[in-house]
Design brief:
This protein is mainly α. It has five helices and two strands, in the order H-H-H-H-E-E-H. Helices cover 54% and strands 7% of the residues. Helix 4 packs antiparallel against helix 5.
């Protein structure tokens, strides 16, 4: 559905052009498009010369261009805030999961046996899996740091012998 702007006169060609979005008149002028036929007359005054593009140029078609939006910088504080907000959402979902799974289940682990709520048992299993992944990641990071340290030491030792 389209709405007619206030103060719009459909018989005035200058009103028709001023209701276009900025830049639309420029695009039509570049392509050689004229909204009026070649033998058209101005509908308000009846003057054929008034219907030319010179008449349309009298009215301002565009407002001053708006300044370009500023680019936002990603900061550490912003990243920390996003991480904390995401963690809170995950914790809320986790609490809802635990509260909805309160039925007690029988759990057996290496000869130990007990009865634990299902939500808590699954949470403990997930935390245990996360700990195993963290241990494996920490071992790999230590391995890479030791290799980088050895390479740095061997480079420094090689440079030290060349300078003497």
């Amino acid at each position: 559905m389209t709405q007619t702007p206030r103060g719009f006169d459909p018989h005035d060609p200058t009103n028709a052009l001023s209701t276009q979005h900025p830049g639309a008149a420029d695009a039509t002028a570049e392509e050689g498009y004229s909204p009026q036929p070649s033998g058209a007359t101005d509908l308000v005054s009846g003057d054929p010369a008034a219907a030319t593009p010179a008449r349309r140029a009298e009215t301002p078609l565009e407002e001053a261009p708006s300044p370009a939006p500023e680019t936002r910088q990603v900061t550490r504080a912003g990243m920390v805030w996003a991480a904390v907000a995401s963690a809170l959402v995950v914790l809320i979902l986790l609490i809802a999961f635990i509260l909805q799974n309160q039925e007690y289940v029988q759990v057996k682990f290496f000869g130990l046996q007990g009865s634990v709520p299902l939500g808590i048992a699954l949470f403990i299993a997930a935390v245990g899996g996360g700990v195993l992944v963290a241990i494996a990641g920490a071992a790999r990071i230590i391995q890479l740091r030791l290799a980088a340290h050895r390479a740095r030491v061997s480079r420094q030792a090689g440079q030290g012998t060349r300078t003497r």
